[in-house]
Amino acid sequence: MQIRDYILRRLIVLPFLIVGVSIIVFGLTRIGGSPVAIYLSHEMSSEEVAEIEARFHLDEPVPVQYAYWARGVFQGDLGWSGVAAAPVTAVFPNKLAATMELAVASAVVAVSLGIGLGTYAGARRNKLPDHITRIISISGAAMPLFWFAIVMLIVFWVYLGWFPIGRSTPEVFASISHPTGLYTVDALLAGNFKAFRDAIWHLVLPAITLGYGATAIIARMMRSSLVEELQEEYVDAARAKGLAERLVLRRHARRNALMPTVTVIGLSFGFLLQGTIVAEIIFRWPGLGRWMADSVLRGDRATIMAYVLFTSVLFLVVNLVVDVVYAYLDRRVVLGS
Predict the structure, then answer these.
(1) Which of 278, 317, 311, 315 is nearest to 92 (CA)?
(2) With a cut of 70, which residues of the chain have pLDDT below it?
(3) Quick one: which of 304, 337, 307 has its CA closest to 31?
(4) Which residues, at least 6 apart from 187, have a Cβ–Cβ distance to it below 8 Å?
């Protein structure tokens, strides 16, 4: 089977999974009662309340409500956000851009450091670099994200003052246009190095904080996988042929060690998105996380459903990418499908 057919088979399944997730979450949001409260004020009469319920089809059975919501999604209407006092589609893109910028930066930190540390430690088993990597892995997996974020905030913002919080310096952010909504990309497109440096400087604290836990998991998996691969016979054969140790490591052992690590990387990206809620609140990052937290507290169901729909699609796409990369690294996966 070709990789193209392998991808198509998984793409066919994606819509059914998305619909299934949306039905479950929509039903759960309705168990807690009608979401009409987010649209009401204290001065409204019962007639006005009934008018709002009819306007948003909240007086219909739940299956009918879901059908109206699904139709709106296909038409590009995700509902009205009571928290933002605006249509969800008007607020979502800017919030999404901020969150994705933070998540991608955190993923870059996690993947680069995780694979690098894991490879370095695995190639030096039971030596000092290996022991240091173990300490990093254990501490990263054990520390709660909110606690680590607060410590980083106190040390590097309150006491040392090395890094700012928030997403940008307002006047620098306003000095360039934002066609993509990604501050770093927009700064590069504008050719404004000052804005790009400002964007990177504001990313440092939340990205390192968010990426540290994933770094620990990736490094631990990479290290253990590499240790196993270095004990295989094909590695001994490569060494017997006279290949330099760095070539044995790079061309043979590391490629096979990456296969289980790729799966962990895909799952870690999903957890990074979940962690952005905590990181955005603590570091005042204006993304989906803060908006979602406010929406949950105030019962803004339209925003909650938009967030769940997006994260569901993203998780499924990331898993698809992981499957493709895994199939590329190990052709037996494709041949056995």
Answers:
(1) 311
(2) 1-3, 6, 32-44, 48-49, 252, 270, 274, 326-337
(3) 304
(4) 176, 193, 195, 196, 198, 199
Element (H, E) at 233: helix 233-240
Instruction: Give the end-to-end CA distance of the chain in Å, rounded to a whole number.
Output: 7
Domains and CATH numbers, the chain: 93-298 (1.10.3720.10)
Task: Burial-class residue 75 by CB neighbours within 10 Å (0-12, 13-18, 19+).
Answer: exposed
CA distance 138 to 143: 9
d(CA 107, CA 105): 5
For residue 144, which phi and psi values (nearest 5 degrees)?
-65, 140
For the beta carbon of residue 241, count every other beta carbon within 10 angstroms.
8
- For residues 283 and 151, is the Cβ–Cβ distance under 8 A? no
Burial of 8-40, coded b for 16+ CB within 10 Å and e otherwise, reads: eeeeeeeeeeeeebbeebbeebbeeeebbebbe
- Find all residues with CB under 8 Å of 190, minimum gap 6, and list them: 176, 177
Residue 2 is predicted with a pLDDT of 61
CA atoms of 56 and 81, how far apart (whole Å): 12
CA distance 151 to 136: 16
Candidates 57, 3, 6; CA nearest to 30 is 57
CA gap 303, 293 in Å, rounded:
10
Tens digit of each residue's pLDDT (9 = 90 or more) over 279-303:
888 888 888 888 888 887 777 778 8
Residues 24, 84, 74: CA angle, nearest 5 degrees: 45
- Say what the pLDDT of residue 37 is: 62
